[in-house]
Amino acid sequence: MITAAQLRAARVLLGIDQRRLAELSGLSAPTIQRMEASETMVRGNVDSLVKLITALEDAGIELIDDGASSNAGGRGVRLKAGSGYRPEGTASSGTRTRR
Length: 99
Fold this sequence. Notes:
Blueprint: H1 4-14, H2 18-25, H3 29-36, H4 46-58, E1 61-64, E2 76-79
Antiparallel strand pairs: 1-2
Helix pairs in contact: 2-3, 2-4
């Protein structure tokens, strides 16, 4: 599962807006807006959730579940190592900026 906070954080890491995420996932922009407005866990039909998570993973996002290996020990998101994905508008020099 994915939380609304993870969804928003993933989108920010990728440097994309809700409309672009909708395009990448094959969902509508209002669907992405509703998902991000959820209180905790994102709700939606299974097909929509699979499309969303697949689009994020294809873009280089790794979802971190509660109890998974991470420095802080909580839920989160991070770019996959070696994903090669650069947020829109960044230079192609091969260097990454830490956030």
